[in-house]
Amino acid sequence: MTFVNTISKEAVAVMPKEVFPGRIVVVNSSEGLNEALTYLLTLSEIGFDTETRPSFSKKIHHKMSLIQLSSEDTCFLIRLNSFKKFPKILKNFLNNKDVKKIGLSLRDDFNRLSFLTKIYPENFIDLQNYVSQFGIEELSLIKIYAIVFGKKISKSKQLSNWDAEFLSLPQMCYAALDAWSCLRIYQFLERSK
């Protein structure tokens, strides 16, 4: 299968909007995290993303707020601020070699994670590196998704407050879509080889 190398913002803007079609589970307890990870460990690959409350000052840096882990039909939104310290079972999962974790711009995520815990991430695939073998030169999730599926991903909630006591439905849908779309791109491209 052949893909275009690049795509313009204008071309993306007129595309239909993608919507996460699955179930969204907010995880804010040890029991919920244990259930989520027990399920995710049964899979061979998942989508991965993180969110951090934005800072509009160079002097203020916030801790990572959310880790999104998505299967094809369920996305778990792990609220890190619900835990006193970084959960050991989550750290073990991120270090697990058996489950492939697909994300984008992972170096940034790993850097932010390093402020919370010592991590040795295993079996992660960064789409920014992966898509080049298909001739795709774009690096943003929006443009990669548009090239592969002809749909646009909205980033309107990216700069919202991820530390809010309760996440809004638009925030949850945005966060789930980001992780799920990474998995979807990877699976589609793997099948197109």
Outline, from the CA principal axes? globular
CATH architecture: 2-Layer Sandwich
Q: Cα-atom Rg, whole angstroms?
A: 16 Å
Compute the number of structural domains.
1
CATH T-level topology? Nucleotidyltransferase, domain 5
Proportion in β-strands: 15-25%
Verbal overview:
By secondary structure, the chain is of the alpha/beta class. The chain has one domain: Ribonuclease H-like superfamily/Ribonuclease H (Nucleotidyltransferase, domain 5, 2-Layer Sandwich), CATH 3.30.420. It is 35% helix and 17% strand. It has a 6-stranded mixed sheet, sandwiched between helices. It is globular, with a radius of gyration of 16 Å. It starts with 8 loop residues before the first helix and ends with a helix. The relative contact order is 0.22.
Keywords:
193 residues; Nucleotidyltransferase, domain 5; 6-stranded mixed sheet; 7 helices; 17% strand
